[in-house]
Amino acid sequence: MPKTKVKNSGTGGGKKIRSATRAAAGPSRGKKAASNVPAADRWKKISVTPRFAIWGALWLGALLFTQLLRSPASNIFFGFVTFFPLASLIYALICRASVKLYMISDTATTEKNRPAEYDFRLINESVFPCPFIDAYIKLPQTNSVRTAERCVKVSMAPLSDYEITNEISFRFRGTYEIGVSCLYIYDFFKIIRVKSEIFSYTTVYVLPRKLVIDEDGAQSVSDSASKTKKASNSYEKIEVSDIRDYRLGDPLKSIHWKLSSKTEDLIVKDYNTGTTDTTYIFSDLSMRFPTEVPDKPFTDPYAEPDPNCLPDINELASAAAYEDMNEFCADGVVELTVASVLRELRAGRTVVLLWYDERAVIGAFSFELRSPADFDVIFNLFATAPIAPAEKTVAGLSALVGDSEDAKYIFVLPTLDDPTVTSLCTMPCASDSSSYEENEVIVYSAPERFAHPSERENYLDSCRTQLAEHGLKLIKGSLDGVMPLPEETSAVHKKGGIGINAGK
Length: 504
Fold this sequence. Notes:
Elements: E1 3-8, E2 21-23, H1 31-34, H2 39-42, E3 46-48, H3 52-69, H4 72-98, E4 99-103, E5 109-111, E6 116-124, E7 130-140, E8 147-156, E9 161-168, E10 174-186, E11 192-207, E12 239-245, H5 257-263, E13 267-272, E14 278-283, H6 319-346, E15 350-356, E16 364-369, H7 372-383, H8 394-399, E17 407-413, H9 418-425, E18 439-444, H10 453-468, E19 472-479, E20 498-501
Parallel strand pairs: 5-11, 14-15, 14-17, 17-18, 18-19
Antiparallel strand pairs: 1-9, 2-8, 3-11, 4-6, 6-9, 7-8, 7-10, 10-11, 12-13, 15-16, 19-20
Helix pairs in contact: 3-4, 6-7
């Protein structure tokens, strides 16, 4: 949650500064209608406040006072009241010309759930005090799903400056714009308002965590230096395909002791696991859940339940869960994809990573990766990928690849439903052969977010059987620290990793 504090670093005489951070709102009348209007468009460059009505009443009183008394003093008072708004306007314009705002934050990239500070410096260059300044700052909302404007109220002494520090912790990865849209500066009596357009923004890239899948549950654990493919004349399920220098993490049983004793360096045997050398990974970032609670048909609470009426397995547990479910799932899909890419690269495979992205010219990105260093080059691009429309699913992405007999396919999904299962079973990579345990369908598992977790679990079990008939292994992936896995999970990375529960 953003925290705002104002620090006086000028010559304000040591006065206590009162600051407040609140959601941006419009004038007192029509607040609901104005709350959705950006601060930069809410009022004109020069406008009056509701207090201007007090001046109008005072002007009428002065006019009546002058007409009744007809004295020089009443005329002077009437003239003072008449030209008072003009003097206030001139004063506010002087303050607007002298107040400057600078963004001094140098942080453009951070990791989610890690606090980051963004600083703005407000400077009053004139000898006139500025008693009322509203700075409209664009910051993430409390749930960090999207940004919203907040108003910081500041009073500035002559020749002073204030540093506005915002501490923000992002719950979800993505791209955020943080900055100041405009300042509204008032006169001493707060009857005239002038706008100073700032539009000083910094794009903050919030990256996901780089997690790894526990290699105990992975199919290929060798960090091979060469491509491995099963030889056609091999009668063994596993054969030596290459020898290389020892690397940290290699198992002792793979060391070639005879050659190591001759070369006086550790030599490791690379084994051919019979797997292919190319893996296609499809990351589904499509919006699969509504942002508002769907309407339910009326049911008689006294009627007997219909055994044929099955609950919606994608119904969420609460109304609040609908607000950020798509962002929540996109985070899980991205981190599961990152872990899958790193696992395949460390196994010596070439990875082709595909996902829909509105930033691409053709609407989708496809990158061929041959090493973790290649993945580092595009990591920021993939890590900040926006959520795609609901129709942009992996079924369309797989059509860009076609069928490749020697390739492995991994589909990372936010959820499963009947249309998705049908499209997966009819893809060119699916078959009735014995390729089970090769191609994978990884579904982000977060049962605490669903209204019917047990029914959803039963549904995933039925999907597992159907996908297995077409050579696809269903895996329930969970992020450590987000959703703890049960004790019987087959592979859990204990420190910041990903738990994989393939099921049986």
